[in-house]
Design goal:
Strand content: over 45%
Structural class: alpha+beta
Number of domains: 1
Largest sheet: 7 strands, antiparallel
CATH topology: Alpha-D-Glucose-1,6-Bisphosphate, Chain A, domain 4
Order of helices and strands: EHHEEHEEEEH
Distance between the termini: 28 Å
Number of helices: 4
CATH architecture: 2-Layer Sandwich
CATH class: Alpha Beta
Number of strands: 7
Helix content: 25-40%
CATH superfamily: START domain
Shape: globular
Oligomer: single chain
Length: 157
């Protein structure tokens, strides 16, 4: 599943916020999650981000039984320069859940600002209901991304 966000702001400005500890913490709390733990390391042009997050989401019954009402997860994200923009990947691993979400992303300039493109690959390794849970997970991830991008656009002004 690929989501593309066309933003009317320079890629450099978007990148600066998406790799800023204070902004990330504020955005995560603004979308209704608990205050996160964030570690950021920068080496050369590469940025590594690790976030410990806790989200409360209403899930369908099949997912709620397995995952619970609070989803604790670790997100490890990596950014690096790529041409005129940046590319990277992240991995979300859920505490106590046999599954994860991997993603590749690109942030690149356009004539009108920039595009932030994310391709998610959810994977749940539960017999019989795994594919159903992957669809639910994909929907939850997309909704979360939309909320986080809305906050980003508001912050950019």
């Amino acid at each position: 599943m690929t989501i593309e966000y066309a933003l009317e702001h320079p890629a450099e400005r978007v990148y600066a916020l998406l790799t800023d500890k204070t902004f990330l913490a504020e955005r995560i709390e603004a979308v209704g999650e608990d205050p996160p733990t964030i570690k950021i390391s920068k080496k050369g042009g590469k940025v590594e981000i690790e976030l410990q997050r806790a989200a409360r989401r209403d899930l369908p019954k099949v997912a709620a039984k397995l995952i619970g009402s609070v989803q604790n997860f670790t997100m490890k994200e990596s950014w690096e320069p790529d041409g005129d923009g940046w590319s990277g990947s992240y991995l979300i691993e859920f505490d106590g859940v046999p599954g994860h979400v991997a993603a590749d992303f690109d942030l690149y300039p356009t004539d009108d600002g920039c595009v932030y493109s994310i391709t998610h690959k959810p994977r749940v390794t539960v017999p019989v209901i795994g594919k159903t849970l992957e669809k639910i997970l994909a929907s939850q991830v997309e909704d979360g991304c939309d909320a986080e991008i809305d906050y980003l656009v508001e912050a950019l002004g």
